[in-house]
Amino acid sequence: MIRKIPSVSPYDLATKARSLMRDLGLRIIVVIDDENRIVGVVWRENVLSISSTRSNLYVKDLMEDVLLIGYLNDDLLYILREMFMRDIWYIPVSDDRSRRSYLGVFGFENFFEKILKEQELYDIFKDLKVEEVMSREPKAFQPNISVTTLWRNMLKDRYAAYPVVNDKGVVIGIISQHDLLGISTAFQSESGPRRGPKISSVMTRPAITVKRNDNITNVIKIMVEKNIGRIPVVDDSNVLIGIIDRSDIIRSFLKKMGETYV
Asked: Which residues contact residue 230 at a Cβ distance below 8 angstroms, ignoring those fewer than 6 apart?
């Protein structure tokens, strides 16, 4: 259930990590040394702090410590619980606890792929409805808001995407960190050196949405096929009523497995 994605060196230019994330749709890149040992990770939030066109920063200036490494013999339920509790959707994977050699990345969507392939797991979710899992009263933005304001909220809320709605609450698109990777503006501080473009100029439209009575298995399939992590939930008039993301689904699975404290 691991995916081998490109890695970077601490001494690669930070713009290389940004380009890889933009071009391959990655949310994490693992940083390795000359002996293929895991030494850190770079997240989308890290690369969004730099300009997409010019930067003298190196990967080592942006990378963060690894919060959790998965090993091939680890129990899957343990790994999912630890990822959920630490609020991380991806972890590097190794086969050697002493050397921490890089093998690939495990993410929640890799588990979702497993759900779609294995009947025993699929049956856990087949009767579960979106309204039983979704988060209600989600934050959303209107299209005339600046991306600088959006970016501040992403940092504060630790969300990678928000629904975009009109003045009647109808979902007209979605704006994600991946959308922001195509902008040359650097989001370097709370105040921001400039306000940047409006959400309307960079958002993805139309947004993929689901209804409250949809099965969770349908949501999982969409997330896997479209490589998206958050989906707005709408009523019959396409008005926003909730949102469902990968961690909501993982929470429901852990509860079904007896992890009552999550």
From this structure: 159, 160, 161, 174, 176, 243, 244, 245, 246
